[in-house]
Amino acid sequence: MIVTSATEAVTSGRQYLPTSSLGSAGSPNQSLLPLTATVNKNDHLEVGGCDVPSLVRRFGSPLYILDEETLRRACRQYHQAFQRYYPGESLVIYASKAWNCLAVCAIVASEGLGIDVVSGGELYTALRAGMNPEVIYFHGNNKSIDELQFAVEVGCTIVVDNWLELETLARMQDALQPPTRILLRLTPGIECHTHDYIRTGHLDSKFGFDPDQLEDVFAFVSQQPALECVGLHAHIGSQIFELQPHQDLTMVMMQWMSKAATYNLPVRELDIGGGLGIRYTEQDDPPSIDEWVRVICEGVVAACETLQMPLPKLIAEPGRSLIGSACVTAYTVGSQKVIPNLRTYVTVDGGMSDNPRPITYQSIYRAVIANRMSAEMTEMVAVAGKHCESGDIVIKEARLPQTKSGDTLVVMGTGAYNYSMASNYNRLPRPAAVLVNAGEADVILKRESYQDLIQHDCLPEKLVEKG
């Protein structure tokens, strides 16, 4: 049996698949599974034309499975929506902290997107993947001297976050070099309903210049021939379902662009960040990519008309909504612990080292048993990780079919902040990742080995026992 809607999935007691219409034309961030997901004749979950249990047998588990079609379609929907709704120049930039590796950077580059990096390592990866430095924007609230020098040398745009960084860049530049392109990050004081750890637009934030500092900042930058301030940036948070805060942001930012122009700064770019949420459970109802872009564009156009300003180059930095729904993580079920009248724990062979979001943000996920997709969901269980930590619970309440050791359990929506936040806690090797498309699966991240775990360990000679 193939479930045709999320509502039917809940009421029928069967496992979830996206609707056929969602799979062909929907907004990827509104889908629980990748857009290519289906059930094959073996009653197995299939993603990108690849049988998921077979992928686990071939590549092992835990296994990140990234659907290339879903990622590319999200890139195109962002690009096409800006073309449709914004009469000026625009640029979509992938916030690569969501998942930064060579293959992902190469895919978004091939779709015409720029990239947002927040460290020298992310910058290096983007460059090695072939990303043009002219569309790389370097963020971060505590960039090192070496990172700033690296960014200046390759010619990317630096999003300046604080006074120390601003003054350092002003001193760093060689008189014979062209000025360093910078954006100034502003904390706009806009609240949104999301987790405290991922709200970045309110005033009590470690990021950006506060509004009462900006005129001093504009005055300083206007006197620095080594710096070319081309625009302003703000980001109000992540996993946001509301549209009004983003609309409010456009007017705040355009007002500050108007003020910056009075200091003769060549401000022409407005970077409004990202933050659009994705659907992790049936209860989540995020706006579509198209809706989010339309609100942003209409807000900027209206603000420009009110302030009688020319349209800026409009930049957006989606991360989670580009890649979050494009990936699932496949685990192998192990032991169970049944506590009568209390809880049943079903254990998988991964957990907080490959997905730290539940223990960090209390994030909620949805799972299926991929080798028995038509099985009735008869149990409410806790999906537990294998780490030596009581809080290592992948899903606290998961409605599943009766599970058995060896089942393939798939957690949905794991493309954002899973691999990128993975660790070697308990010395577990980090998982492999495969890119699936049209029945082909390519390794994009090798599974770490035990030897990889100790490759940077150093054992002083005096600790080596003499035979």
Explain what you see.
The longest helix has 19 residues, at 289-307. The chain is an alpha/beta fold and 467 residues long. The chain folds into two domains: 6-67 and 326-453, Lyase, Ornithine Decarboxylase, Chain A, domain 1 (Beta Barrel); 139-318, Alpha-Beta Barrel (TIM Barrel), CATH 3.20.20. The strands form three sheets. Strands 4, 13, 14, 15, 16, 17, 18, 19 and 20 form a nine-stranded mixed sheet that branches. Strand 8 (157-160), helix 8 (163-172) and strand 9 (180-185) form a beta-alpha-beta unit. The protein has 14 helices and 20 strands. One of its GO terms (molecular function) is diaminopimelate decarboxylase activity. Substrate binds at residues 320, 357, 361, 389, 417.
